[in-house]
Amino acid sequence: MFDSLTTRLGAVFDRLRGRGALNENDVNEALREVRVALLEADVALSVVKDFITAVRERAVGAEVLKSVTPGQMVVKIVHDHLVDTLGREAAPIDLRTTPPAVILMVGLQGSGKTTTTAKIAARLTGRERKKVLMASLDVARPAAQEQLAILGRQVDVPCLPIVMGQTPVEIAKRALVAARTEGYDVLMLDTAGRLAIDEALMAEVAQVRDATSPVETLLVADAMTGQDAVNIARHFNEGVGVTGIVLTRVDGDARGGAALSMRAVTGKPIKLIGVGEKLDALEDFHPDRIANRILGMGDVVSLVEKAAETIDRDEAEKLAAKLQKGSFDLDDFVAQLRQLKKMGGMSGVMGMLPGVGKIKKQLAEAKIDESMLKRQEAIILSMTPRERRDWRLLNARRKQRVAAGSGTTVPEINRLLKQFQEMSRMMKQVQALGKKGMLQRHLPGLLARRGGGLH
């Protein structure tokens, strides 16, 4: 989401770091470029003005200009103010109330509200072990209630049975009674949206709010909305009282301004971000980690957490045993490709690594995309078990057969085998370390430390 902003700010800060001493004019010139970068990222003008004013007050002070590394100090000040603008602390969904805790989902039509409702329900069911009931209050959009029911079946979360002819308030009251009598921990209410904000929409949502007393009222907003995000957030906050924001389509070609603007304008925290269409593609919003991503510092903590969620402990131990024996084969290689896909693919992983903005740009120019992982997996799966254990069996005739079976070409197979051989050489180096005792000493400890977060 922040690629363009990261690139612009990276260029500004590279110049600052390259200078020895800085004077006030240097800082002001850099902040003018930061201002333009924020505006081009669709951050609201009022937010940009406040941001630049706050940064300038500290950046032109004696502690910065007389610092040993003034460029680094300016970057730190910008980072700290980014964190402040984004909310400083992560804000999880608050369920501290007498069950059922009602979560009211609001937003414009097309913002991804219904899908986000199912995503949160699945998250609360799986991670928090909560018993969740969903109910669609959208009687205006055709098949909206059935859409939530279908999503509910996909994530194994029950939906309130549909009764035709009821108003949104009547559905909400019926859902609340059902949640209380059937012992649900959480009731999620998916309200109707409109193409634009109008009085009828606000009145309807306010009536539902008054009838159900939600513990959370979450505004679902499209990260690609741009400048309109500020007006949407302000109207919903004034009309119904928002407690938090969920940004969707963060993985799309958004400029990132919505994240900075909505939090600053409403004073309400961004709680979650949608990072894909899959029903598990939802992440907690950590202001400090997002600020790190914007400034090209990476987000290693989130990367480690994602790895801990997706890595299978048994598979990790099997791979460790193979490394010690030096018997890494193509079956292991395809397992690593699948692991990479689970963690969000090459772009997802690289987006969390520090200082890879320029590399990402080079990969984009080289037209290396995520489909490459799928094609490599298809190649390996088109081989026989013997071929996967010993790639040397792949003569010209066998390669032609594999290419036909995987819908690829022989040159692609050759590139894959070269990549595998390079990885095998690296594994032999790891094996050599093991013989010297380093692997035996450190690998069990690494696995033990990771074990708590592995499934």
Description of the molecule:
The protein is α/β, with parallel strands linked by helices and 455 residues long. The chain folds into three domains: 3-86, Up-down Bundle (Four Helix Bundle (Hemerythrin (Met), subunit A)), CATH 1.20.120.140; 101-297, P-loop containing nucleotide triphosphate hydrolases (Rossmann fold, 3-Layer(aba) Sandwich), CATH 3.40.50; 303-451, Signal recognition particle, SRP54 subunit, M-domain (434 Repressor (Amino-terminal Domain)). The protein has 22 helices and seven strands. Strands 2-3-1-4-5-6-7 form a seven-stranded mixed sheet, with helices on both faces. It is flat.
Q: Give the termini distance in whole angstroms.
A: 30 Å
Main sheet, how many strands, which sense, barrel? 7 strands, mixed
Assembly state:
single chain
| Structure classification | alpha/beta
Radius of gyration: 26 Å
Residue-averaged pLDDT? 78
Strand content: 5-15%
CATH topology title of the largest domain: Rossmann fold
Helix amount, in percent? 55-70%
Number of strands: 7
State the helix count.
Answer: 22
Short account of what is shown:
This protein is an alpha/beta fold and 455 residues long. The chain contains 22 helices and seven strands. The chain folds into three domains: 3-86, SRP54, nucleotide-binding domain (Four Helix Bundle (Hemerythrin (Met), subunit A)), CATH 1.20.120.140; 101-297, Rossmann fold (3-Layer(aba) Sandwich); 303-451, Orthogonal Bundle (434 Repressor (Amino-terminal Domain)), CATH 1.10.260.30.
